């Protein structure tokens, strides 16, 4: 995984999860919206068999320590192979997390409708159907 840097990635993932938890508390919120644009994702490097243990560890850590913190979890421009990874990861997801998970392929019209129902146009970059140039 990523040239043998699994431990470093695991530390970064734990740091990310804790940072998002602390920011959510500081803003006096109960959850946050997770939005990931997979456009340009190197599937050979990041969605491979050697990467699966990292993703499973990340999901298990999230479920054990920060359940329901990210609501919804949205992935746009998801490569087709991502669905295969999800089939492996889904069994460790809680029902509530599975319910909040929204995965969209590259059909911009489809994910734009969903995103614009959640976000104001000025909160989204132009590439995702918004009006912001700063993101």
Describe the structure.
The structure is a single chain. The protein is mostly helical and 135 residues long. The protein has helices at residues 6-26, 43-46, 52-65, 80-89, 95-100, 108-118, and strands at residues 32-37, 70-76, 101-103. The mean pLDDT is 88.
List keywords for this structure.
135 residues; mainly alpha; 6 helices; three-stranded parallel sheet
Short recap of the structure:
This protein has 135 residues and is mainly alpha-helical. The chain is 49% helix and 12% strand.
Total of DSSP H or I helical runs spanning 4+ residues? 6
User: H/E series, N to C?
Assistant: HEHHEHHEH
Beta-strand proportion = 5-15%
**Average pLDDT across residues?**
88
Q: In this structure, how is the largest beta sheet organized? A: 3 strands, parallel
The helix/strand class is mainly alpha
Query: Tally of extended strands?
Result: 3
Q: Ranges with pLDDT <50 over ≥5 residues?
A: none
Helices, strands, pairings?
Layout: H1 6-26, E1 32-37, H2 43-46, H3 52-65, E2 70-76, H4 80-89, H5 95-100, E3 101-103, H6 108-118
Parallel strand pairs: 1-2, 2-3
Helix pairs in contact: 1-3
């Amino acid at each position: 995984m990523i040239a043998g840097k699994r431990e470093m990635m695991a530390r970064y993932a734990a740091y990310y999860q804790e940072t998002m938890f602390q920011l959510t508390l500081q803003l006096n919120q109960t959850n946050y919206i997770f939005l990931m644009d997979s456009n340009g994702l190197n599937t050979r490097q990041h969605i491979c068999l050697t990467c699966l243990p990292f993703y499973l560890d990340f999901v298990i850590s999230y479920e054990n320590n920060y359940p329901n913190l990210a609501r919804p979890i949205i992935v746009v421009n998801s490569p087709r192979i991502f669905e295969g990874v999800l089939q492996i990861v889904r069994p460790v997801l809680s029902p509530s997390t599975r319910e909040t998970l929204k995965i969209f392929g590259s059909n911009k019209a489809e994910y734009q409708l969903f995103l614009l129902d959640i976000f104001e146009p000025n909160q989204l970059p132009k590439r995702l159907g918004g009006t912001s140039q700063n993101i």
